[in-house]
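Problem: given the chain below (249 residues), write out its structure.
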Amino acid sequence: MNNKANRVARFTSSKISVLTVEGKGKYNFGSGAITYINQRKKELLIGRGINLPVNKWELNWGKLWEVWVHWQLGNDYELIVDKTTVHPKYDFWSGSEDFQVKIQGGCVSELKAYQMDNHMDYTECLKKKSIEAFKKDFKDEYWQIVSNSCIHNTKFGEAIAFMPTEENLLEMRDLVENTDYIEKHIKDDPYKYRFVVERDLYDLPFIPSHSDFPSMTKFRFEVPIEDKIYLAKRVIDANKLLNELIEKK
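Solution.
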């Protein structure tokens, strides 16, 4: 959890799936949901995010490719990764999606640049073009998209799996070492991305030139209205429980 005003003490899309796991707690919440709600209580009490950022190279890897992928996707995609939006009706609910897609009905799009094993599993799942398979095998990613679709009132959601090809990675190495790509587009400390240049090529995730495994796979779907309704109820109930815990303090 960072300290952006629209995220602190709110239920956010990136963590929202834990609220969908039912259990024996009040409002049928599971233990993971109770822990999450208690963390929101602590943030309300202290007035800032309690989970400090961890700058590991695997996390920075995803940030590294957001702008580059946007260049490949084209003008129908608007990159809004640094913007957090509060639900227009429920101010205790917020989310940050990677892209909004300019199509009739609206679409929120989420990019995942996973490491090798996860990328292959995620890609194979998205290739099925099945909402049920997506919801079953990657529930965190699925409910994140549903949440952002609720917040922005879009008809569609989209999941993108991306891993650079060998040629893409060599291009990125050049951008990091010889241009102002990091400062200009990512607006971050360039030192945190030196691993792209300093690591051996095969210590980084990429699709080798002799492979035909897909570098980018997209799955766009109409977000089921019943899942929007269900998720909204779970978030509302989570806020009720949060208020009850605050009152007991």
